[in-house]
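User: My instructor asked us to take a sequence, write out its structure as tokens, and then describe one feature of it. I'm not sure where to start. Here is the sequence I was given:
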Amino acid sequence: MQAETSGFAAAESAGKTRKAGTSGRCIRGLAAGTYPCKRVDMLSHVGLAELGLSFVNDMWGWTDRAPKGKKGKRKGKATDYALVGGTEGTVIVNITNPKRPDVLGILPSHSLAGGGFWRDIKVYKDQMYVVSEHTGHGMQVFDLRTLRNDPPGYTTYAETAHYAGFGNAHNLNITEDTGYLYAVGSATCGGGLHMVDISTPASPAFAGCFADHGYVHDTQCVVYKGPDRDYKGREICFNSNAEVVQNPPPGSDPVINAVAIVDVTNKMSPVVISRTEYANDGHSHQGWLVPGHKYFLHGDELDELTHGLNTTTRVWDVRDLDNPQMTLAWEYSTASIDHNIYTEGKRAYASNYTSGLRVLDTSRVSKPALRELGYFDVYPENDNPSFEGGTWSNYPYFAQKHVVGVSSMDRGLFVLRTKTGGGG
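Assistant: Let's start with the prediction itself. The structure tokens for your sequence are:
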């Protein structure tokens, strides 16, 4: 592994003064006099320099829950951590006190030679899994329980295991009920699902491939609990699929953008259930199921630029997995490019680049209808449909209710509290 890069070397040299944060209530449409907002307060903001990163991309989170006593009750409080991906690696921030976040240190990128790239992160059974689009990175495994004995200062952590079954990968998802991980967008499996058994975290093992649809940009894989009886209890992946067609006919679209649903219960023999294209497509990017697995919220990263739409979230009725139907293309009041969306309870949390975090009411998604309840704009300069700055992702699943972490490419980590009810 390459020596420390200047970003986190500088942060490490700063010593134990790791706590940082600037708070700001949302008052008359602004937080801290800078950030446009509605029903969302800023509890703290940790900038790039404090994180030790030169650029921020994806984020995830981990809650270290207190152990259970003899009567099954937990003793002590849960500890919440934000896991922030960036060019140099993955930075870990204790946000248990959300107004005084504590930047603990960094897991450096596995492959920094030639420059860093963005990375994506997920957690399973107290283990952090990290992939990157950088050549030769593979997948890092880091035992988060190490943080319970974190030393003073800005720590440079060492990965506890490494998986080299692929070099680069765009993203990953984990079915927590089964212990299988799905890396997507790698140079293996045709860019589709590269399946890994992580039941033994220190020894990730290849489990299978799904390459029939070519490149998959993102996926959510679950043990299906929805109403379609044909697939109840099966392990199903909902893929945001952007297949590049080799030698397309003249005048035809060289990319098939679709939502594809695949049964991966048998890892060595996955089965296509459906693949459905949609109108006004640009690049099928990412999506997330609402609780109950009846509806899927989906974003296309280039439809705003390609078709002049406002920011758009598509609602898919997936009660019949063989015949999913797009029932709504819901447009926001802004024109910014949408990126990652996650659901919790009756709320959806959308990271939309230049227009920031948007909180949606999903309680009437079956009508179909969505409604914006609040927002926090981490990029107040504009709401343009561009990649110039703003939020890449968010994480609404901390033990602290209504606390949401938001990663900003050019400004670092925001810790927010929503006042919109619902989950998260």
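For the description part of your assignment, you could build on this observation: DSSP finds three helices and 32 strands in the chain. Try explaining in your own words what that tells you about the chain.
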